[in-house]
Fold each of these.
Amino acid sequence: MTRLPLLELDEIPEEYHYLFTDEYLGDRHIFRAWAHNPEVLEATLEYLNVLYDQLGQRRKELVILTVARARAARYEWHQHVDIAREKGVTLNEMQAIGGGDLSVFDDEEFVLLQYARAVESGTVTDRIHDALTRQYSSSDIVALGLLVDFYVGLCNYIAAVDLPFEGGEFVGWAPDEGTVSELFE
């Protein structure tokens, strides 16, 4: 049971109802918890949208999955398995991230995910940073670091409020087609 009640739409000020449409946030538990402070929710979403636009949808999802796995953040992993499929991340790639083997990725994505792991754990070295600068601009590196830091904090927050999944069982660190279809389609 969550430590922070999940608000229903009629408990949220009407001026923020637009955030909870199917086309935008829908009915995800994380946003229903954040709705206790709708001004912060709205501002956070604006900030995240800027970060998301910087990295592109696929890379953003790869980074989020990498952070979720590194933090053993089941809620965030579960959510983003569903989201990442729509952004071009394959089940094979999710299984690789879930199993800690990034060798399936090309050089550009491999270094991105290595860097995300290093930022998450606070272990960025000159070697990792230099490899990243050969593939990505300084602007990309800023966005990447801030996205990783945001999701590290989000994973901690989700654990602090003990946020439950939206229906179904945990998809698992090595999601398979049958389980994914059952849970998300």
Amino acid sequence: MSLSQDHDAVLQQWRADEAAVRARLRPGISGIARPEQVQDLSGLQILQAMLEGQLPPPPICDSLDFMLVSGSFGEAVFQGQPMRRHYNPLGTVHGGWYATLLDSALGCAVHTTMPVGRAYTTLEFKVNMVRALTEQVPLVRAVGRVLHSGRQVATAEASLLGHDGRLYAHASTTCLVFERPA
């Protein structure tokens, strides 16, 4: 199998992964989960409920054409399609789109490590854009992985990758961990 065929296979798998998640989403369900829906769930259980269509995906995903495609303890993967409506005046995808996708992967990776009753908020977030994105790139994935999740602080890193393995950006975060307010 040639390298081009390998890349085509990855792209087909990514599209299939997205289609599988979308098939589980309930039509007309949007918004954010109500507090009573998540109060007895760990962060990982919340992400899994979103992936199963039991909880709504965040509205920002519709606005910016990306979605959560997988989550496991310490890892979250978001996938997005760069589109012309995401362009800046220079004719490439705006850095804010990169940042939002990466921030989502970072935050949700940290979220998967939160036990019931614990929450987090971002203290610091850094993005390095290393390659321009255009609508010619069919899909990208932001893969976030936790480096440390402690009682008060969590850190994570993420990469924004094309189906061909190209790195478009990478990011890191530091989050404050605390008791979830009642």
Amino acid sequence: MTKAALPGLTLCNNATLRRAGRKLGRFYDDVLAPSGLKGTQYGLLYQIHIGTEPAMGAIAEALIMDLSALGHTLKPLIRDGYVETFADKDDRRVKRVRLTPQGGLKLDEATKLWTIAQQRFEAMVGKDQAAKLRAALDEIAALDFDMPTAR
């Protein structure tokens, strides 16, 4: 295929989404920086908070992450005393996660900063447009992109 026949990156859904994701991720990371958390860590703390001691598999599924990536993101949160893992009382093979009291305080601190980021983003793109964007991205996240098996 010649260079002229290749589509530009603006035609690639994946490249455009990743570019926007990196830009927005940096923005949230910068606003959350005073808390010492990255946007991914804040999202994980929040997911654990609303999950009421969720299983690691459930968190990974909700965030569309594999377990190893989840474990990597959890390590500094465990190290810093914000999160603890424990075995499920009914099935010791299942690892559950909960916020520590210190983690709850950190989540409260970071939520104040997250609210600022959220308000700034919505001021720039508009509340309705932001809501439509979240809805569209939720629809995409719900799609089944599994490839058929090769014969």
Amino acid sequence: MPAAPTRTNPITPAGYAALRARYDHLLGAERPEIVEIVSWAAGNGDRSENGDYLYGRKRMREIDRELAHLARRMKAARVIDPADQPDRERAFFGATIELADEDDARKTVTLVGDDEQDAGAGRIGWSSPLARALRGAAVGDLRTVRLPTGDKEWEVVAIVYG
């Protein structure tokens, strides 16, 4: 039976650096501190009532799970630098796009990797409904996005890279 295809994870260089920094911090700083606390607490005797020991073991499991998750995401990552985009007339990964709805309300979004999305800052994940609708759009194009509240139409007003 063939192995399941590995899903690539597009990410900007800054997004990858943030993932790497989090991984390095957990592995190099946070986990060793917790290991030290657990070792100290284990030497204090009865572990069943030792809060430092119990909390430390729990926190170590959480850190190990996050490290494994970050390792998988970094392994699947495909770093794409928006500055290298050859077709700057269309919306692709890394583009910052200004949109206008039918009421001329403006919205600016940047298409980034799913691991670096932050809707409050205008960074939307590459696999989000809005990002999928905007892929390949040019200035002046109308794109319809299916939302839970119904369909919404956006016009692409401007596209900028970098």
